[in-house]
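Subject: for your reference before the review

Hello V.,

The reviewers asked for a structural picture of the protein, and I figured it would be easier to keep everything in one thread rather than splitting it across files. Below is the amino acid sequence we used in the manuscript, unchanged from the supplementary table.
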Amino acid sequence: MTRSVQALAYCRMSALESTQSGRLLGLETSGGLTPAGAEAHPRFFSGFVTSPQIAARGLLAVADVAAARYYQRLRPASLDPVVTGNGDRLRFESFSGCGGVYARLDVLSEGLDGAETGHGTTNVDVNNPLREALSRMTGDDPLHLRVGPEELAVTTLDGPVVEKKVPLPDRWLRGFAEAQVASAGFDLRAELSAADAVRFLRSLPKSASGTGRGPMWVVPAGRTLRPTTRPVPGAVCLPGPDRLIALQRVLRHATALRVYGPVADGAATASAWEVTLPGMRLTLTLSPDASRGFSGEGGVLEALATEEAAQDAELVSVLLAWEPRIDLADLGEQAGLPVDRVRAALTRLGTAGRVGYDVADAAYFHRELPYDADRAERHNPRLVAARALVAEGAVTLDGQLATVASGERRYQVRESGGALSCTCQWWADYRGRRGPCKHALAVRMVRRGALVAGGAR
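And here is what came back from the structure prediction:
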């Protein structure tokens, strides 16, 4: 598995301190992007949170996911969460070490008090002493939240810093993009009241993920959700129900549980589980199988394979302005592009960590992940393999049929209604549910005029 090392530098360790006016939660930031460009320690917020205990528990839930491996729990993960200032809210995001769970805490405008929220994205230090301090928080004494260094520290950044060096696997980077693409296809499937949500979540099996059993499904039944062994109409997939354990942090404060997913078609799918809280939302998005992460789902490959999407993404990127909700029609009007091309451009930008998707708003949002996420595209195995096939001139077109030479074998790729099918084992196993195989991807590139070294035969 290809990985790089992410070097994070903080002015000091994040800490929870007592002051004369209450408590101060100082979250230190590392390098990130803002409207003014790259900054070593951006500052996004300094004000009060309206629900201190809930904010503390929500942040702990995001940190729990960042430190967890829900499958093959050999060693803990260690990447610090990402924070984005979107002008009217703060978003804290993380991914599990196994790449199968995406977590996000949205602290909305009604959850913040006394200051404007800045714009930009960076990593935020959540260390073990801070986790312990947050877990001991009781009562609702005022909590001042500072995201970024103190004003005084901004002028003295030449002093000692806290450095962390953590592994950053390519599959983790690709997971951010794939989770965003999957979420964009979700609809609201069920909504439970606070009491019903607590009863349902506490009734779920506590067994570890990856036991070899098939996925669990749930279907709305009255005021709750009922387990079912098959994807009946209206059902939502719940693979590895123990992966929702981070929601336990905030259950006592929940006002509702909302469940999102695609239309059930018989195969296991991803799903999103959102706990609504006073002034906040905590969302966990689960991969279709507890034994695999989001990185291999292939939802971004079509957009990555087209030069048109690359050009559109370059145009659309200059129009983004850290919006908390991106209006596709408005963005299309500004760019002079139809909505379907804007959506493909946003998918491509998502592979570079430049947009995410919020199921509650049913909208994309702008953020800039603070690492070289472009390597997720450069090192995507199927994309790399498809480009190699194109460069070798391995694709032969014949109307709606194409032949792809791969090693000593020849595969037939057929187009029907804009969709491609293949005679390879990958297609036989997944039928397009995990994106196109490398052969279909290569054919798509050639059909759309991708540069072919040696020419297409």
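For the response letter, the relevant points are probably these. The domain at 3-167 is CATH 3.10.150 (DNA Polymerase III; Chain A, domain 2). The longest strand covers residues 3-10.

Happy to draft the paragraph if you're swamped.

O.
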